[in-house]
User: What shape does this take?
Amino acid sequence: MRALILCLLLAASPALAVQPDEVLPDPALEARARQISHDLRCPVCQGETIDDSNAPISRDLRLLVRERLVAGDSDAEVVDYIVARYGEFVLFNPRASGSGLLLWLAGPAMLLVGGALAFSLTRRKPKLEDDLSEDEQARIAELMKE
Amino acid sequence: MIVELGHFALILAFAVALLQATLPLYGAARRDARLMALADPAAMMQLVLIAAAFGALTYAFVVSDFSLRLVTLNSHTDKPMLYKVAGVWGNHEGSLLLWVLALALFGACAVWFGGNLPATLKARVLSVQGMIGAAFLAFLLFTSNPFLRLANPPMNGDDLNPLLQDPGLAFHPPFLYLGYVGLSMSFSFAVAALIEGRIDAAWARWVRPWTLAAWIFLTIGIALGSWWAYYELGWGGFWFWDPVENASFMPWLIAAALLHSAIVVEKRESLKAWTILLAIIAFGFSLTGTFIVRSGVITSVHSFANDPERGVFILMILATFMGGALTLFAFRASALEAKGLFSTISRESALLANNVLLAVAAFVVFIGTVWPLVAEMVWNRKLSVGEPFFNAAFPPFMILLALILPIGAMMPWKRAEIGRALRPLRGALAMALALGLLAFALQTGKSALGPVGLALGAWVVFGALTDLWQRAGRGALGEKLARLGRMGRADWGKATAHSGLGVTIFAVAAMHAWAIEDIRVVRVGETFPVGRYEVQLKEVHQEQGPNYSTTMAEMVVSRDGAEVVTLYPEKRVYPVQAMPTTEAAIDYGLTRDLYLVIGDPQEGGGYAVRAYVKPFANWLWGGALMMAIGGLLSLTDRRYRLAAGARRAPAAQAAE
Assistant: This one.
């Protein structure tokens, strides 16, 4: 099933991705370039990072990323530079601002809601016969403090 | 002729499904035994008819009948036989036929193994199965008919996509579909129980094996797909958070939650409404996955609008079944009275926490998958959600889950103390921390990912072993071992599956943290270092395969001067589809895979070569396999084999 989509998105690209002639001589800079291109989406393929993609435009983008890095841009500046030209579509890591914040907060919010519901489920029950009532427990807590 | 018979059988199956969907349901409401009894032969007949249709299509592929449109588009006479057969489901129409075949198979299994179900429940379950079958058979016949003929058959076909011509992928869809469709059984049981208005321990005992089976198939299917991506796509990635992958992962997560909450219903008659809801949602995600993959909606809202017929049809199926089931749930859920009470710290609560975490994790995957769609529809923004988001948003829930798993697994029912549950786990905790620190000391770099992954994985694995050891009771070593041997398969299954999760967590972290990659131009005869290995490109030559031509490299890998292995990476071209594929050469090992890829010849001479050392890659598939085996052990536990239908007081059962 997944294969069917994958075959579509890979139809033109047997995953050659980063070519040796693109690699920067400075390993630290190259590592940053790889990190950045892992988060950028190839604009013409489907669901591939420019790091994995074999499309010519991805090669152009990889070279552009390295060009900006060599020119001394910070990682964020490089990404801004690319996004300014190709739109936020190329960002695989959607920005956690504005409406994007909803996406990032959805999971934790859901956990809070789910956790609260689950907790109330364990509390809502009629108490077990051998349980102490809340008053009794409060009384014990007081006694313990003394 | 055979093809026409297949086509006819499919239409007949649709008619039978319509009968199966209505008459037994009506019969159950009227307590009419004859109408209810119709469900059995109808379900069997569906299996026979759909199997006949599937056989006819397979036959057309095997003999390369190019008068059939589907065969022309997806097959070729030069293709090896395995891929001619796999070509049956390597396309939209055929894969849907496989979908309904799996559905019919599960329906028939309900007849075979459901002898001791109450008559009304069985009739209702089979009716709901019939509804699902009718919906998908209609979808197949009206929008995606695999049996369409061509007026002018060509001399030869267009071939199956070369990437799909691979054993791993030939078997990936059948497993995945058995998993997706297996969840329809849980759904049918849930809906039937809502109609009946009664859910008890016996119901949970009937529904859990189906969920377990579906989950096992999903586990194997997902692992096969991931393994295929690892060795076939040429850069050793194993998970891409692609929408289509997510489509199979969401039902897996929910099914995992469901088979845990069903334990609570079975043992304690609690969490009933929640379990029913999970069963509905699990199948909902199966349908959503089918919708995502089959409609093309994820590509873009626009590509969906261009060819809306199929997408809208599945969306209608999804809306009907989810809407119907959830409405029923809303009316009936309040009638599901919980019997077993439990306190905030107890096995029940731990399983509830497991459920909340798995459900939230599935929700995060879901929202990330559909977010680009939402953004385009609501704000008209075209954006992407990919690996970096999922890698940041998904793992926290899994980490929490892994942290509480060993503790929760050792808690007693009803009421527990964290301190008492933790005490036997001190050894596991110390071991996990020590291993994590050791990994941190040994690794180069300061990344916490590897050590944390190792510590977490070890915590889960040693926790599972501790649990097993505790279960063996007190006494001399011999006695404990004897008791271990006599222990039920459910206990062994639990330990195996949980350990598998731990192993998988470790392997994922290791692959992300410690992989070594090298990309360079290499001339024939040259040697270059990768990690602790030296790789020599010895020679490159051309060869001819059955339906492709290949550029094959001979590369010798050595370590400290001693030869380790000679590998032959290839770059193939399949002329019919004019498509190149990379065939990575992999030396599988216990602690690392050596992964070599040969690329294009370079202008200045030499070849582009990519070399990887992938640490603990085999542990990833091993972990998934352990989870599947654990599920299988649990599925074959005595209480399912013998007492599948016995209505016994749950309290009388030994603890899980």
Residues 643-656 of chain B have pLDDT under 50 and may be disordered.
